[in-house]
What we know:
By secondary structure, this protein is mostly loops. It has a domain at 296-567. It is 3% helix and 2% strand. The chain is built from 1 helix and 6 strands; from the N terminus they run ββαββββ. It has one helix at residues 374-394, and strands spanning 158-160, 185-188, 606-607, 609-611, 659-661, 668-669. The strands form 3 sheets. Strands 1-2 form a two-stranded parallel ribbon. The chain has a two-stranded antiparallel ribbon with strand order 3-6. It is globular, with a radius of gyration of 23 Å. The termini are far apart. This is PE-PGRS family protein. Residues 686-709 are annotated as: Disordered.
Amino acid sequence: MIGNGGAGGSGAPGAIGGAGGPAGLIGVGGAGGAGGDSAVAGVIGGAGGAGGAALLFGAGGAGGAGGSGGSGAAGGAGGAGGAGGLFASGGSGGFGGFASTGTGGAGGTGGAGGLFASGGVGGTGGGAGSGGTGGVGGTGGAGGLFASGGAGGAGGSGGAGGAGGTGGAGGLFGAGGAGGLGGQGNHTGGHGGAGGSAGLLALGDGGAGGAGGAATTGTGGAGGAGGKAGLLFGSGGAGGSGGAAGTFGDTGNSGGAGGAGGKAGLLFGSGGAGGSGGAGGFANGSTGGAGGAGGGAGLIGNGGNGGSGGTSVATGGAGNGGAGGAGGGAGLIGNGGNGGSGGMGDAPGGTGVGGIGGLLLGLDGANAPASTNPLHTAQQQALAAVNAPIQAVTGRPLIGNGANGAPGSGAPGGHGGWLFGGGGTGGSGVSGGAGGDGGAGGILFGAGGAGGAGGAVTGTGATGGSGGAGGGALLFGAGGAGGAGGSSGIGGFAAGGAGGPGGAGGLFNGGGAGGAGGSGVSGGAGGEGGAGGAGGLFAGGGIGGAGGFGGFRGGEGGAGGAGGLFAGGGAGGAGGSANNVGGPAGPVGSVGCSGPAGPADPAAAVALLATVGPAATRACSPPVSPAVPAVAAGRVLTPAGPAGPAATPACWSAPAGSEVPADSASLRVGLGRPAATPACCSAPAALAGPAAPAEPTSAALAGPAARPG
Length: 709
């Protein structure tokens, strides 16, 4: 009747971990056991065990971590999270296992949420060595009938970064989950995961696409496409930003292309904004990534803005800026999306074509083609005459989008119209300068503009510019994504620029994703990822930006944005990889009426005992515990820190965890956390949640070897 499922046992070498036990009527599913590490060449690591299911009042158990593969073999897949109870979320998928020269194990799929709760977060893909490929992030769990899908897991780091997991599909009335971040790679960044589709009758958005992973010497990963809205209502998800190209290398390295924005519902909703293209590298011929196209609107709503093209910072010349993305078109009432600004370079990228305004009412987006319809032309002229005096007095039009900031100016984007209109995109920064903030969306409906990218330093020894903040929305509109931080100069120990924070979402829409931190090129630390924007009353927070690559230390992942009263907080961003110490993952955003999650623990030395921290409490809705990155013995380059598993059921305090002795197969990291304080209500001690599961083995999270030289 009342009780928690037991944790599954760890697998023998190369064998699958045990499944977590199911919970009673009131209780939490048990965590799956870790898969066994393989010591035999060519033999893959054991898969993690599945988390146990909950029944009525309790979250599903977290999946177990996959075991490390033998030489030349893949890591084991992470276990799937258990299904949540009626009022609780699904468990998070387990981490994929590490592979030295093969492919890291895939992250486990998040568990399905209960009737009124979100799906679990997909597990982070396993890391790999410099000659291997990071594992694919796990798919987010499906949301319950009235809830959102879980976020996809981040791809693992490696020679080639793993792709981020796809966001989970929303329930019939729920929003889609955000796509996972692409993994950072020595040679190629991983693609960001696609955002999940919203439920058929949902009012919420499609999930935002995950940002592409940055590369050290090669091409950045492409951003994931934004998810589709529901059939009739809701806005499309924003496309993910492309990853920055490697700052090292002898040949041209291109930034990743931004993802396309998702399409809105048929009746009411705006198209998602296209993602910004990633910055090109320093090598001769490096180009910026192209911006993603904005999504189309419904009958009432604005087309999404096209993403800005990435800047080329090639020091040897022949580096072209990326082309801006096309703006999405409107339907009956609404503005067309602005065409994205082209990136700077020896040859600047072209500006994207603006979207056409609504047939009945609405302005065309910036750089829209001239119309051959005389009625449409007359409509545009009449609206321009009405807007001019209002713009002069108040600084924003009555109906229309805000103007984009000019590339290289660091100027903020203009605010959307008083009635409706999207905020303009902030201008990118000059060398070492900050990017401009995105403009605010219109009062009735309109998304916030994306922040401009911070300027990369083309000289020596200076800190990269910070990304601009995404613009906020008011009633119906998503928050804008934060701009990516710029890379530091060559030589010295200057740090990469910090990513900009995502903008706050409107009443029914999610917060924007935080921007990725810039690279600390020579010996400096990677820039911190930007925090995700806060969600509206009925929507989740934005995902935190990934920390930047560091010569000495990777940047810390950005914190996930706070969720609304009836929605979950955003997942924390992955920590940046480095030649020495990887950065910690960002904390998860607070949920509902609970307090914020504590900060992620920094990387710690390997210890013989692992103290499992107390399980986080839940206050009226399920927060997720922060991630704990690990540093493996004998490894130099540590991977990005993964997002943490889901926490225990609502309003019940969980007891402290117990010490877990290390076994002969692996060493574990000793890290503990203070227990959270319940913010809304409490349950009797007999109903307390279980201890948090032990951290995955350090071998499962070990990073690739350092770059030669």
